[in-house]
Design a protein that fits this description.
It is built from eight helices and two strands; from the N terminus they run H-H-H-H-H-H-H-E-E-H. It is mainly alpha-helical. A hairpin with a 3-residue loop joins strand 1 and strand 2. The radius of gyration is 17 Å and the shape is globular.
Amino acid sequence: MAVSGLDTLSKSRDITTEFRAFELRPPGSPPIPPQYRARIDAGWPRVEAIARERFGLEMKQPSLTESGGTRLAHAGAKFAEAQGLADPYHRAVFSAYWQAGRDITQIETLVEIATSIGLDPDAFRAALTDPTYLDQVLADESFAARSGLSGVPAFIFGGRYLVSGAQPPYVLQQVADRCIAEGLIEE
């Protein structure tokens, strides 16, 4: 959903996006309590409706794994970024997980996604365990913790304004306009 809001904003504003890693369920997370899982399930129809109404997206409720395991997907994103393919990678992983219901915790799934956007499968596979990319993921997570971020999507505009959640595109535009007016970002 984050990409769609930014897509809408990019039609009216020249924006630069920097994606940062954020694991909702990092390694070592405690099991999801049954009552919280029930709340997620109960709220899913609303998530689907927001995605459809605001962004024209059809989404499937993903299965919730206890391991989370998205660290490798984030390391893959860092590699894709280094190859100039960050945007296609993010879009392909988003679609695989949220729309096709694929398990992005699996290396083979990630390699298939990477290959589909033109990344070399062997280089990508090696990058998933390369300390350079894993350290970049951990640095992003440290930034998120210092910034008080606890969920996704989250947008920081001009290094000052935080917008959390899948907000309507006009909200992102208002914040971008404010940043332009304050000289935090260029028009």
